[in-house]
Amino acid sequence: MTNRMSNYTVSIHYDRRLYKQDIAGSIAHVRMLARQSIIETEEADSIVSGLEQIREEIETGVFPWRNELEDIHMNVERRLHEKIGQVAGKLHTARSRNDQVALDFRLYAKDAIDDILKEIHGLRQSLVFQAEANARVVMPGYTHLQRAQPVEFGHHMLAYFEMFGRDAERFHAAKTTSDSMPLGSGALAGVPYPIDRASVAEELGFSKISSNSMDAVSDRDFVLAFHSAASICMMHLSRIAEELVMWSSDEFNFIRLADEYTTGSSIMPQKRNPDYAELARGRTGRVYGNLMALLTTMKGLPLTYNRDMQEDKEGLFDSEDVIKSTLIAMKGMISTMEVEGDNMRQAAYSSYLLATDITDYLVGKGMPFREAHGIVSQISEYTHSKGKLMHEISLDTYRQFSDLFDEGVFEITVDSSVLARDVPGGTSFSRVELAIKAAVIELEEENDE
Ligand code: ARG
What we know:
Elements: H1 3-6, H2 12-15, H3 19-35, H4 41-59, H5 72-84, H6 97-133, E1 138-143, E2 146-152, H7 153-178, H8 197-204, H9 213-218, H10 221-247, E3 255-256, H11 275-298, H12 312-336, E4 338-339, H13 341-349, H14 355-364, H15 369-385, H16 395-401, H17 414-420, H18 429-448
Antiparallel strand pairs: 1-2, 3-4
Helix pairs in contact: 3-4, 3-6, 3-8, 4-5, 6-7, 6-12, 6-18, 7-10, 7-18, 10-11, 10-12, 11-12, 14-15
The structure holds arginine.
C-alpha cells in the first residue's frame, strides 16, 4: 500500500482532542487491573506514571505525534512503550480499541455538555438582564412579521429565556445518554478476565455501566443526542440572531448593537453590519449538517463496531466549537446592545396594534366577539383609507360604526393593552415582573448546583 493510501484511515489529526479522556480512561482501567490482581501493582504504577508523563508531554506541546500510528489510542500506547518498555503492553489487557473509543468519546461528550450548559446559563443571564434593565419598554409584538399587539420588551426577551431553558434540559438528557461506562465490553462480546467494571465507572464519574457489550461498542446514540440538542439550540440562536439583524436595521431601529459586534463596509462608510448575528444564523446549517451526517453514517451499520463509526468525531468537535462560540457571541451581543425604547414605543403607537383591544372593549359592552371583530375591521379599513390611526378619529366617527362606543374608547392605549393581559404567562407589567423574579431564582438555583 502506498503511503498516500494508508493515510486514508488516519484520524490522529482530530482525535488527538480525546487525549485527556483517553489517558484518564487508561489510568482507571489499569488501576482496576491491579486491584483485581490481573496485573501487578508495580506494573500498574509504572503504567500510570508513564501515562501521566505523556499527558504532560501533550499539554506542553512536546509529544511526538505520529500519523502512521493512526489514532490517539495507538499514539499514546506506543509512546508509553518508549517510556516504560515491555510492561506498557499490559495496559491493553482486557480491553479493545472498540470499548476504549466508546469510553473516550462518552467522557468527551459529557465534558463538552458541561461547558455548553455554562454558556447557555450565561446567555440566559443576559436575557434576564435586558428584561430587567428595560422594564416597561413596550414594543409591537408580531405575527406574520406584521405588527400585532403591544408587548413588553422583557416579555420578548423572556421568550428566549424559555427556549434556552429547554435547550439546557435537552443537553442534560444528552448527558444522561452518555453516562454509561462501556469498558469491559472488549471488542464486542465482553472480556475473559475477572474485571470490576463498576469501580472503573465510579472512578471515571459514570453513574452506571453499560448492560450489553454489543450495544456498548456499536452505540452512538449519545452523539446523536448531542447533535439534536445542539441543532435545536442553534435554531433558537438563529432566530434571535435574525431578530437582532432586523431590529438593528434602519427599518426597525429598535436596538443598536455594540461596535464590537458590527463591522464596517470597505466601500460604504455608514455601514454597521451585524456580522456576528449573521454568522450565528449562518453556522446553524453546519450543525444541522453534522446531525444529518451521523444519522446517515449509522443507519445501515450491522452490529457491532464498524470503522465507519470513526466518522462520528469531527462533527461533534465542530458542533461543539460552533455552539460554544455562538452562545458566547450571543451573550455578548445581548448584554451590550442598546435598546431604543422610544422607537419601540413609537412603533407600537403608530400602528393598528390596539384593534384587538377595541374589539374586546365592544365585547365588554355586550357585543358578541365575532360581530365586534367585523366592526373593528371596518374601522381599521376606514382609518387606513383616510391615512389616519385608530386613536385619531373622533367619537362621532366611531359611533357611525357602532353606538356602543363612548369616550371610554380613548382610554385604550398601548399601556392599557399591555396591562390588561394579566394572565399567567401574559405580558402585563406585573406578570413580566413575576416572570423575571422566577427567572432570577431559576438561574440562582443553577449556580448552586
Ligand atoms: N480510531 C478508531 C475509531 O475512532 C478506534 C477504534 C478502532 N477499532 C478498530 N477495531 N479498528 O473508531
